[in-house]
Amino acid sequence: MHELSIALSIVEGASEEASRHNGHRVEAVYLKLGQLSGVVKEALLFSYGLAAEGTRLEGSRLEIEDIPATVFCTRCDAERTLASIQQFCCPVCGIATPEVTRGRELLITGLELSE
What is the pLDDT of residue 113? Predict the structure, then answer.
């Protein structure tokens, strides 16, 4: 379960950033998680709780924004959200669309701090 190592990295990064802001307690960590990131959301949420124990993040929330898999369709000349990650085909015209534009994200986008 590599989600635990990811959760530990999130906790470490958030703790370091909170230290830069006078050691405030972290109430929430905001994360973008792409559908193609290879991370299981439920496992990450569970692991986050374990990783945060005994740190300034203990009891904080991990708020995850799901980012769908999006590709660029050359025929339509537009970005399209995949209907299924099992088929990289434009949901409008059906052409194969291997150019991924979104969906690989695993990014901390913000922290909610309290005194």
Answer: 92
When the pLDDT of each residue in the chain is averaged and rounded to a whole number, the result is 94
Q: Which domain holds residue 37?
A: 3-114
User: For residue 38, what is the domain's CATH number?
Assistant: 3.30.2320.80
| pTM (two decimals) | 0.88
Q: b/e string for 48-73 if b means 16 or more Cβ within 10 A?
A: beebbeebbbeebbbebeebebbbbb
The total domain count for the chain is 1
DSSP3 helix / strand / coil % (the chain, rounded to 5): 25, 35, 40
Instruction: Reply yes or no on whether the pLDDT at 34 is more than 80.
Output: yes
